[in-house]
Amino acid sequence: MHIRDKYIDRVTYKDTDQISNEEQFKRANEFFQQLPDIDLQAEKIRCPKCNQLHKVYCLKCGELLVDKQSIPKIELPLNLLILHHDKEKHQKSSAIPAKFLSAQVEVKDFPCDFEFDEYTYVLYPHQNAKYIKDLSLEEIQSIKKFVAIDCTWHQTGAILETIQKKYPNQKYLKLEDYQTYFWRYQHHSLKCLATIEAIYYCYQEYSKAMKQNKDYCNLLFFYKYTFQQIKEALKKEAGNSNVYEKIDQKKQRRLNSKLNAKKEKQFLKLI
Ligand SMILES: [Zn+2]
User: What's one GO-annotated cellular component (predicted)?
Assistant: First the structure.
């Protein structure tokens, strides 16, 4: 048994049907279209710390490389700690860029010291997790901090184990039923959200429960930006402006079992 299976709430977290990468890309495209388009400086900029060229930010050094005015500023109702497993590169994280958007976001590389109090809630579908809607108003009002666990599915066990040892009565929150819009199907389940999606839905649910009804969709700003970049790359690869057409062609070729294995590999690399 994998260590994480000791903790996870299997009933809530059961698998959904698998879908193809192309279908998932289409779902993602529809979802991201609802969010405002992002126009950021297109050229790469040299990171002052590592001297490498990057667009928008260097996650390795934690440097924002564009003008702060060109990205949204988010006032969160509660602080957020992102516990990031150090075996995972920062560059792969969907959540870490949130620190550029809000001063209330802190990122720590696990293993690390952390202090939780009884008003700290860890966002994870733990066996003991509760839905925000099932907490009393008093409990909801008492929350001081959310903690998001940011790592691959396989690394969550180590973080959960450490929390369990340090705080056996730790409170956990689980989210209502959502599906991921990460653009490539991730083999586990559509219910496996990207960390930034989980963070976004958590604040949406909290806001609703507090009857503030604020929209925190700007938390998805860099998530959408990454999707836009991938879509652009696909367009270039396709040599035409219709990304849907490209995907459909790809699908058709697969159906006809004529897909060249090498091209497939390149396509998967792009998305
Ligand atoms: Zn750098």
Answer: nucleus
57 C-alpha to center of ligand 1: Å? 8
Q: How many A from CA of 48 to the centre of ligand 1?
A: 7
The token pair that represents 78 in the structure block:
């509660």
Q: Which of 123, 110, 63 is nearest to 91 (CA)?
A: 63
H helix or E strand, kind and range, residue 252: helix 243-255
Global pTM value: 0.83
Q: What local confidence, expressed as pLDDT, does residue 1 receive? A: 44
Measured in Å, how far apart are the chain's first and last C-alpha atoms?
32
pLDDT digits (tens, 9 = 90+) for 124-168: 999 999 999 999 999 999 999 999 999 887 789 999 999 999 999
The residues spanned by each domain of the chain are 3-24+32-228
